[in-house]
Amino acid sequence: MFYTLLAAFILLLGALLVYSAVKTLARSRWLLGWLRGMFGLALVAGAGALALIAFDIISYKQLLAEQPVATLSFRQTDKQTYLATLVSSDGTEQEFDLRGDQWQLDARIIKWQGFVAAMGVKPGYRLDRISGRYYTLEDERSAERTVYDLSDGSWRVDVWRWLRRYPQIMPLADANYGSATFVPMADNALFEVSLSNTGLLARPLNGPARDALAIWDN
Predict the structure, then answer these.
(1) Are residues 96 and 124 in contact, defined by beta-carbon separation less than 8 angstroms?
(2) What is the pTM of this model?
(3) Count of beta carbons in the 10 Å neighbourhood of residue 96
(4) What are phi and psi of 152, to 5 degrees?
(5) 158 with 175: CB under 8 angstroms?
């Protein structure tokens, strides 16, 4: 809810900028009109930037506590090749062809500090990418690698990357990266992925998943 409200507030600011731009552009007179026109266009550009920021922010979900964010199931289609089905917490289902022996899921996390955290605002997260990895170094160097973007489009303004690169822009926000450590893939294996303040955790939900982890740990 917080991230939806924050995005709505930013969109409202953008709408106010557009309103100011329209009023400015509607007034005429030569030099003064030209200056007003340039200022009005700058307001329109600012409104567009705010809208893009809002669309990026609204894609984040609030992390209330350790909670399941996705389930992952695997079906082996060839040697070191699996069809992975990812179902996110909102019911969205995606399929990926992963190459290798292990999988990893990554998420972007925005944590709040200072008075914002004191107000009870929880961290926000967004699933970022899924990738495969091979056991052996030789395969890692020579075999086909697979990694998929989960950010639902590359056209967004990337607020998380801004916070990582320029932390002084918003000192009350901290952009972190959470990753589930590489977990073995196996035919018919089913895993649950949970997210906490410390990162992503993968837990087996059926026999093939538990057997794969047992073999890998040994």
Answers:
(1) no
(2) 0.64
(3) 18
(4) 60, 50
(5) no
Backbone φ and ψ of 182, nearest 5°: -55, 130
Q: Measured between alpha carbons, how far is residue 163 from residues 36, 111, 125, 144, 153 in Å?
A: 33, 11, 14, 33, 19
Cβ 169 vs Cβ 146: under 8 Å: no
The closest alpha carbon to 208, from 72, 69, 70, 66, belongs to 72
C-alpha atoms less than 13 angstroms from C-alpha of 119 in its C-beta half-sphere:
10
Domain residues of the chain, as ranges?
A: 2-57, 62-217
- H-helix segments, the chain: 2-26, 30-57, 114-118, 137-142, 159-165, 207-217
| Phi and psi at residue 11, to the nearest 5° | -65, -35
Side-chain-side CA neighbours of residue 210 (13 Å)? 3
End-to-end CA distance of the chain: 44
Handedness of CA 99, 102, 103, 109 (dihedral sign): negative
Please name which of 133, 116, 129 lies closest in space to residue 200, comparing C-alpha atoms: 129
- Are 111 and 92 within 8 A, CB to CB? no
CA angle (161, 162, 163) in 5-degree steps: 90
Interatomic CA distance for residues 140 and 133, integer angstroms = 7
Q: Which pLDDT tens digit goes with each residue over 96-138?
A: 999 999 999 988 877 766 666 666 666 777 888 899 999 888 8
